[in-house]
Amino acid sequence: MDDGEPRWLNAEEREAWLTWIAATSLLDAALDRQMQRDAGMPMAYYQILVMLSENADRTLRMGVLAERTQSSHSRMSHAVARLEERGWVRRHTCDHDRRQTFATLTDEGFAVLAAAAPGHVATVRKYLFDRLTPEQVEQLTAITDRIRTGLTSEFTDPTEPARQLGLS
Amino acid sequence: MDDGEPRWLNAEEREAWLTWIAATSLLDAALDRQMQRDAGMPMAYYQILVMLSENADRTLRMGVLAERTQSSHSRMSHAVARLEERGWVRRHTCDHDRRQTFATLTDEGFAVLAAAAPGHVATVRKYLFDRLTPEQVEQLTAITDRIRTGLTSEFTDPTEPARQLGLS
Fold it and tell me: Is the CATH number 3.30.420.240 carried by domain B39-155?
């Protein structure tokens, strides 16, 4: 990055970047508005409920929740405390390791999630899928998969699998 | 939205949506980490400096800043107050309309922005453009433009141009 003149974006890249920023921030804001209006919670809370619901026992370690949502531990603790006040999530420790805190989706939380899901999916459909051709959906998946892979491989040690197999 | 069974996402749409969420949130987090580490500010501050720098007199109304970043007015006031403490932005009112508050980028703020830009652009390049073919960049622009247009037209009255022209 520091060896010489920065490689500024060319006209096509600049347009792509500005359009990406506009689309992602407008979509995030629209999804959050819909969720606040129809279900009385921000998207951040909805995402926590979804993640918990997708586990067999509707339970996740707090640290895993924070990691999966790219949140700090303190921000996740704050959000889960609010969800616990509403009776949608319950925090607890585990007998064999009392240093770990877990969050579990309650039946009430599951019912709230089930009621909120149709409106959320309809909004995603309206602003994303209804706007794109099936070919564009395929292109978008390939593109965002490339971006995701670059970002996740960054934080993974590439020699790790070999080491686990005793090859290095 | 309420006339019958919700149209859930099919397998391709679900994959596209999960990949989109992962890519956008990981990219946001990576850009924010780089900016915090190398320039000591969050991306939200950088975006404010960029927006101010792009105007002829490096000045914008506070309300316009909030709107363009999809922020609440209170959140934008808070951010600009922090930037003012650092000497990077100056807030002031205008003689002919004292109800409006403006924010102006200072010379020091401009210098900070100029120093931060190369590292930011290199990070955008590394995680986005270096991962995609030129064809994919074109596809991405077309796709995000479709999404953006759907979201911006939502908040515009379609009869407005006709009304302004006296046609309705």
Answer: no
